[in-house]
Amino acid sequence: MSQFGTGVNHTYYQIDDEDPEEYDDAVGIKLPWDDPNEVYGIWDVWFWSEDKAGNIEDPQGPVNIKIDKASPHCEIWDPADRSNVPLGGGFWV
């Protein structure tokens, strides 16, 4: 890869107060956790890129990532008796 010209040279991300890391498509982002058996929490992720000319953009974000252990849940409010929910044209939650 040429280090000169135009285009993105590197993309970085930072999670909460952790050290910044270079983004790798093959790995994605690595969320920090203490116990690998309890991989859940809330993280703020900032990201930015550097182009081949060395220009660095301002950090973008935060993007909030939340992973919890709760099962998906949906409450039906209409019809009020919750007896019959037509699914004719699709079902939106």
If you had to describe this structure to a student in words, what would you say it looks like?
The chain has no helices and four strands. It is mostly beta strands. The chain has a domain at 8-67. The model has no long low-confidence stretch (mean pLDDT 84).
Q: Describe the global form.
A: elongated
Backbone CA Rg:
21 Å
Mean pLDDT: 84
Give the helix proportion (percent range): under 10%
Largest sheet: 4 strands, antiparallel
> Segments where pLDDT lies below 50 for 5+ residues?
none
Written as H for each helix and E for each strand, in order along the chain, the element string is EEEE
Structural class of the helices, strands and pairings? mainly beta
Largest sheet, order of strands side by side? 2-1-3-4
Q: How many distinct helices? A: 0
SS elements, strand count = 4
Q: Could you tell me how far the N terminus lies from the C terminus, measured between alpha carbons in angstroms?
A: 45 Å
Portion of residues in beta strands equals 25-35%
Labels describing this entry:
4 strands, 31% strand, mainly beta, elongated, 93 residues
Task: Give the SSE map.
Layout: E1 8-15, E2 21-22, E3 41-51, E4 60-67
Antiparallel strand pairs: 1-2, 1-3, 3-4
Question: What's this, in brief?
Answer:
Helices cover 0% and strands 31% of the residues. With 93 residues, the protein is mostly beta strands. A hairpin with a 5-residue loop joins strand 1 and strand 2 (21-22).
